[in-house]
Amino acid sequence: MKIQRPRGTADILPEEVARWHFVEDTVRRVAALYNYREIRTPIFESTELFIKSEGESTDIVSKQMYTFQDRGDRSLTLRPEMTPNVIRAYLEHSLNQKEKLTKLYYLGPIFRYEKPQAGRYRQHHQFGVEAIGCAEPALDAELVEMIMYFYGELGLAGLKAVVNSVGCTQCRPGYSALLRNYLKTKLQELCADCQRRTEVNPLRVFDCKQPLCAAAISQAPRVSDNLCDTCSGHFRTFCALLEESGIAYTVKPELVRGLDYYTRTAFEIISEDLGAQNAVGGGGRYDDLIESLGGPSVPAIGFGTGIERILMIMEERGVTFPTAGGGAVSVAVWEEECARAGRGVLRSLRRAGIGAEMDFCHGSLKSQLRRAHKSGSPFVLVLGRDELSRGMVKIKEMSTGSEQEVSLEKVGETLKGNITK
Ligand code: HAM
After folding, report:
1. Could you tell me if the CB of 207 is within 6 A of ligand 1?
2. Is 342 in contact with 388 (CB distance < 8 Å)?
3. N or C: at which end does the chain have fewer Cβ atoms within 10 angstroms?
4. Residue 79's pLDDT is what?
5. How many Cβ atoms sit within 10 Å of the Cβ of residue 320?
6. 283: which residues sit within 8 A by CB, 6+ positions away?
7. pLDDT at res. 333
8. How far is the CA of 417 from the centre of ligand 1 (A)?
9. Given this model, what pLDDT does residue 325 score?
10. What pLDDT band is residue 420 in, cutting at 50, 70 and 90?
11. Over residues 405-418, mean pLDDT
């Protein structure tokens, strides 16, 4: 049997790559507009980093991590998100000492052992940002504005921002106790996982996808009704600033997001085109994470958005995107003895910045022309014994069929003005 790609992963074939480039170029452009700088961290990290950051009772840590022992018997994990990695790097390189507010973005693969379905993969790609060093709700509102601006630049429509506040270390313990007491009255209706969550981390019951659990918690006390004064003030200002920036949003009191590190602001961007996996992006504040990873007390906030889900929406909506024009120029040779000159032409074209190729397995001139046509070459350079003896080359424009002869030295110059890169 042929070896196939692992379940829940995808090959991005050449004809799909243009869409990825469009999204990636937009990522870089929008990140620059908001003054975020790129950071690249390893694909794998110490397992402990994720356990400490995300919390042992989260779905990611308890069920979804790709964890392995390396040959040195270290426990490593393929990154199931990027926030902990960025914070680890921020602390490791003392970025806090270089600037008061550190604004970073990233783009890359993420690994989660999930049940694959439309929009849910075991390897997906995320664009995310982390802004570290500011607790002001203006930053929270700017991040929501930024993610919505990014989607707008991609031409996405039909997106909704849902927001909530999940409280802080002041108000969360009281709320957790309240929720636990409520859940205890519903214990029989909860799944085994949620019965366990009731004891260890009741907030995580909101992550459960089981319809019976959802029904059991429909009347549960909501965190947003149990915030301390500082958190509710922060949330009110955040919402007012969203209004100021013209962002339509809905407050969703049961939005807690699936990670333990969140404090105060939590948000998700929902698309009506995605079916069950309807979140295209999500994020929130995590004011205690840096300290819990051994760093100073520094507030932070960020978001992550899945590229595959973005591409799904683009497809669903028929969003078009600019594609790079024209393939490489093809150099076709008549006879074997012209091949050397052909290779010389290739070299000089490339040096002039013109993409060029020659079919080294060349058959007849006819089959070389056929191949050039199929590969989308805008021009074919035909080198025959006759042309070469006069120091000339024939340029054939594929779209019109028109031909002209130019000297070998002038070929780069002639083509340069006619090629769309
Ligand atoms: P998240 O909500 O777990 O947040 O993931 C962010 C986005 O990644 C989701 O909205 C979704 O588009 C995409 N995504 C997640 N899992 C999958 C999957 N299995 N297949 C396809 N796409 C997926 C985070 O990861 C946080 N680190 C975001 C953040 C940054 N919070 C603060 N800073």
Report:
1. no
2. no
3. N
4. 98
5. 9
6. 128, 143, 147, 266, 267, 301, 302, 303, 304
7. 83
8. 45
9. 58
10. very low
11. 88
Return d(Cα 385, Cα 405) in angstroms, integer: 14
**421 has pLDDT over 60:** no
Buried b (16+ CB within 10 A) or exposed e, 204-238: bbbbbeeeebeebbeebebbbebbbeebbebbeeb
Q: Is 282 in the pocket of ligand 1 (CB under 6 A)?
A: yes
What is the atom index within ligand 1 of the atom nearest the CA of 122? 19
What tokens were used for 374? 């199929």
Query: Per the structure block, which two tokens stand in for 346?
Result: 């290739």
Question: Sheet harboring 392-397: ordered strands across?
Answer: 356-358, 329-333, 379-383, 392-397, 403-407
Q: What is the pLDDT of residues 368-379, one digit of tens each?
A: 888 888 888 999
> What is the rounded distance in angstroms from the CA atom of residue 204 to the CA atom of residue 193?
10
Is the pLDDT assigned to residue 419 strictly greater than 70? no
186 lines ligand 1 (CB under 6 A): no
Q: How far apart are CA 276 and CA 260, in angstroms?
A: 23
In sequence order, what are the residues at sequence separation of 6 or more whose Cβ sits closer than 8 angstroms to the Cβ of residue 90? 96, 102, 104, 130, 132, 290, 295
Give 18-42 pLDDT, tens digit per residue. 999 999 999 999 999 999 999 999 9
Are residues 377 and 332 in contact, defined by beta-carbon separation less than 8 angstroms? no
Domains of the chain, first to last = 14-171+227-316 (3.30.930.10), 329-419 (3.40.50.800)
Asked if the model's pLDDT at residue 71 lies above 90, the reply is yes
Give the torsion through C-alpha atoms of 268, 271, 274, 277, to 10 deg: 20
Q: Which residues contact 3 (CB under 8 A, 6 or more apart)?
A: none
Ligand 1: which residue has its CA nearest to atom 9?
A: 281
Amino acid at 109: P
Q: How far apart (Å, rounded) are the C-alpha atoms in residues 354 and 330? A: 11
Q: Rounded CA gap, 19 and 319, in Å?
A: 10
Which amino acid, 136? E
